[in-house]
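Researcher: Batch entry, complex prediction.
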Amino acid sequence: MGNNNGDQVILATGGYDHSIKFWQAHSGVCTRTVTHPESQVNALDITPDSQLLAAAGYQHIRMYEINSSNPNPIVNYEGISRNVTAVGFHEDGHWMYTGGEDCSARVWDLRTRNLQCSRIFQVTAPVNCVCLHPNQGELLVGDQSGVIHIWDLRTDHNEQLIPEQDASIQDISIDSSANFMAAINNKGNCYVWSLTPGTKLPDGEEGSTPTQLRPKSRLLAHKRYGLKCKFSPDAKYLATTSADQTAKLWRTSDFTLHSTLQTENQRWVWDIAFSADSQYAITASSDNTARLWSIETSEIAKEYIGHQKAVTSLAFQDGTP
Amino acid sequence: MAFYDNKYWILSHVRNSFLYSDDTGMCEMILQNADIPKNIREEGKKLWFGNLDDSEEEFDDDGRIHTRSLGNGNDDFGTRRRRLNTVVRLEKMKKEQQAAAMISTIRWKEPDLTILDEEKAKLFAKKEVVFQNYKSVLARLMAEHASDPDSPFIEYAKFDGNSQLRAPIRTIRIFLSMQTTEERNFPMTVCVIASAKVSELIGLVCYKYSQEKREPPLSGTVDNYALFIAEDDGSPDADFPCLEPKEVVGKFGFTSLALVRSTQPPKEVKKENETTKTTDQPTAEKPDDRGTVLESTDYQSFKGFLLHNIRPKTEITLGISWDQVEIKPCPATSRSVTTLLWSRPNLKPTRLPMEVIVDCVPLQTVPTSVAIMYYDTDKRKWRRLRIECDIKIIEQIVAKLKFILEIRGGLYRQEYLHHMSYVSKKASLIR
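Model: Structure tokens for the complex:
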């Protein structure tokens, strides 16, 4: 198995037990466990070519080969202090972006070993989340002081918006058509904006104006900490997860509640991912279990049991990215 | 942050922080009398451990969370534990070094401010956003496998010890008696976390068996299967009863076990101090088996001679029981003048607790004698007792001690076995 033939379903989970597990999503069987020593896993993401899994931990990002039995990482990115809280990739795999408690968002040039074109964006509070706009040119950075920064990578121009004073931004999500952006904070409130793409700069200058945001809705989604928010691939649903032990699905047409994914043993729901057809969602919880839910029936279709401690992040790729 | 919903964890954390950061000792005085309420403690333990049930090892009643301690926590073995720790840590470091050598490290490089605009334009160009509808491979696979029954033993998959960095594990070879004669010779190697019970190990073996699609397929639940000590050829040793399902795997030092299907769930083996035997016998065991176990751990004494390096041998009675090995010198009977001169009257009776006994082997050099190896905690070194006696008695002594040692396990024995396997590996490499 070397190349992505578009048929691969990759599910990886990580958390506090110093291991990352790969699962056969349709059967619940754990196919492989790799070691992630000395640090919890804060975030996971799969490279666009489906070859590597990036795990963000304490002061490093480790890359693991997906189609191999190697229990150790093959690359270790370091030189950062404190926890790396977010990781993601440009769609062509040219660069990787991270955010961390050191109050910065960084861009790592993956084309060469010497990180030729690295970039850094400093803010004044620890960064909790970083989201890449589908236009591949803007990064949205959410920090603990409640500010969302929009960083134009081409021009270095940045804008700020504060949906709610002093409410730490936990996660930001943009739907794949770039029509909406959602941000959830530690009060459990989820804010939604509608997006309009920037226009080309006049006089033939390179680049364009930044994306415009217009506030659309505010969801009082949960009464406890919000942890993650994510749009479904078909943009019909917005999922929010929380410390209240549930994940909620909201209709993007009118932002009413569609369903709640909850079950007795489930504790804090740390992460969520959708299947490519938006029919299934996978949640990661601190009861050491990840679960596959059917969106239509809100029932659990599969459970992924094997971690010894809380599962705090997952990465899921359903066929062609 | 994953534990911030656990009240007990938060309270303990706050208490500990007060205790350790206060130099005046006032906090300690106050907190000593103020315990965390029992209901929060119980709830906290449940939430903290979830599936693992080893709460008593980490929580203490005064609210302090202790780190897990090795072995029995007996402080007499303090220095002994340090030595074991070093050996384990050195091995771990060696493994980590080897693993680290294979990993390439890339360090963050501060951005080069002279990067050309063209470079930036190329790398960070914005693209047109187009909506794409992807097919879900997962949905297709779910539909295809919808009729597949869930693996009945999937709940035991979590006891697999592969890649468990921190929890102690046991690697055991399992001979599967339900397979054909040829297949039976190739045992399944299973790596299980040491805190699992025997019934959970059986579940893990069944899970791996069904995962690997071995034939014939298993039926029933873990209660229908039992693990026996395996003989050299892989067949279950019928002299001993099966392993107790509720016992923790970490207690045993067996490296080979045999999985057998039994028609009835095995009954519990009574403790050795009970004299009555139950009338209804489980079909998996022969009626005499339980008796053999009880007898094997009862006190037994043997007559023989204790060999010394310089002195001539002294007559002794060797007493072996579950807890200790006893050497009692026999009172002087008719002796010649020479022996009276040589034998010192101060050969005191020796009692060695079974924890320090590590092995018992017939001596190669002196045919009718046996050596009992143990660890001298006072002098901090390995020592050997040599006893000469009848051939038949030697066999009995060796069998009894080996049986007790196998079941008890123990720190010293483990280290000894580890050392012996290392020595034999080295020897075989030289050859």
